[in-house]
């Protein structure tokens, strides 16, 4: 059997020792790798789902208003698949409807959310969801820290809120 060293940022790490045929392994337990960062005390978990509340709410065929929902992070597939949709090819404005239908995982008590639900929403709720999508998938990059020119106080401003292509 051939043994090789594993290359890390801190240099080569020798392979673990093998127990001898005559008895148990008495080598010391492996310690931290020199030069490697120490493990974090609490691992940072990636948030992939984000709750929201629609300003007006989606009204279903029975008249029930659905306002609270959950949107998940978009994947590359979520953004690419709608481009093959004939409705999007004929009308690029339809892209956001199809995309939102893919990433909204829950809306009120509806059993399923799809682009047909999204296209039946009020325009103000659609605008809200488009902005929320940008905020969620930009990982908060729609905010900027600024300094007041008069009092020098630091505060955050929201840069989002306009539709794509508008200034």
Share of helical residues? 10-25%
In this structure, how is the largest beta sheet organized? 3 strands, antiparallel
What is the β-strand count? 7
- C-alpha end-to-end distance: 65 Å
Strand order of the largest sheet: 3-4-5
Derived structural class: alpha+beta
Q: What is the strand content?
A: 15-25%
Radius of gyration: 26 Å
Q: What is the mean predicted local confidence, pLDDT? A: 78
Shape: globular
Count the DSSP helices: 5
Order of helices and strands: EEEEHHHEHHEE
Low-confidence segments = 1-27, 162-167
Short description:
With 167 residues, the chain is α+β, with helices and mostly antiparallel strands. Helices cover 23% and strands 23% of the residues.
Describe the structure.
By secondary structure, the chain is an alpha+beta fold. It has five helices and seven strands, in the order ββββαααβααββ. A three-stranded antiparallel β-sheet has the order 3-4-5. The chain has a two-stranded antiparallel sheet with strand order 1-2. A hairpin with a 5-residue loop joins strand 3 and strand 4 (65-72). The longest helix is centred in the C-terminal third of the chain and has 15 residues, at 123-137. It is globular, with a radius of gyration of 26 Å. The chain starts with 5 loop residues before the first strand and ends in a 9-residue tail after the last strand. The model is unreliable at 1-27 and 162-167 (pLDDT under 50).
């Amino acid at each position: 059997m051939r043994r090789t060293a594993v290359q890390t940022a801190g240099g080569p790490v020798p392979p673990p020792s093998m127990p001898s045929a005559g008895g148990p392994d008495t080598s010391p337990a492996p310690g931290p790798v020199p030069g490697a960062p120490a493990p974090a005390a609490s691992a940072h978990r990636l948030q992939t789902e984000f709750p929201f509340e629609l300003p007006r709410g989606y009204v279903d065929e029975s008249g029930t208003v659905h306002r609270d929902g959950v949107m998940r992070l978009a994947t590359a597939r979520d953004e690419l698949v709608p481009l093959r949709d004939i409705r999007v090819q004929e009308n690029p404005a339809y892209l956001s409807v199809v995309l939102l239908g893919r990433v909204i995982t829950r809306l009120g008590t509806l059993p399923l959310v799809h682009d047909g639900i999204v296209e039946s929403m009020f325009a103000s709720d659609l605008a809200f969801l488009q902005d929320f999508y940008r905020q969620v998938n930009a990982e908060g990059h729609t905010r900027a820290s600024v300094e007041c020119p008069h009092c020098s106080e630091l505060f955050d401003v929201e840069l989002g809120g306009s539709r794509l292509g508008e200034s």
